[in-house]
Amino acid sequence: MAESQTSVFDVAEYILAKHAADHPEHPRMTTMKLQKLVYYCQAWHLVWEGHALFPEVIQAWASGPVCTALYELHKGHFQIEAGFFTKRLRVRNDVSNTSASNPIPESAPHANFSATRKAPPSRESRVTSHEHFTHYVDVHNHRSEATP
User: Fold this and answer.
1) CA distances from 114 to 6, 25, 63 (A)
2) pLDDT tens digits for range 10-36
3) CA-closest candidate to residue 33, choices 78, 86, 99
4) pLDDT category, 112, cuts 50, 70, 90?
5) Is CB count within 10 Å lower at the N or C end of the chain?
């Protein structure tokens, strides 16, 4: 089975749109909650489907799981709503198409981000591997099965 071309931004926009539809009186979501939900989506997809839902890296920061690709676009914002990432990615693409002096590569904008950028100095970060997700779930499933 071929892996999808889904990005973390697709997943985040889906979560934000679903939240807005379910909670029209409060359509905004905290970025910390979004980061955690994206983390759970990746973890459960790895367990159920055997491969990653999206290619972007998730790191373990002191405040919880953080996908650095999302963080780079939402840093400085406490709450966001559906369309947030779509608008920012559109602006980024528009700028790259009009700026010949400083083009942005057409490849995934954050493909090598985690390898080249360090987390803010006050945070300790660690990349969370796909094997970590599946091992964690396997271990906890065996514990729950062994409990009478």
Assistant:
1) 19, 36, 17
2) 999 999 999 999 999 999 999 999 999
3) 78
4) very low
5) C
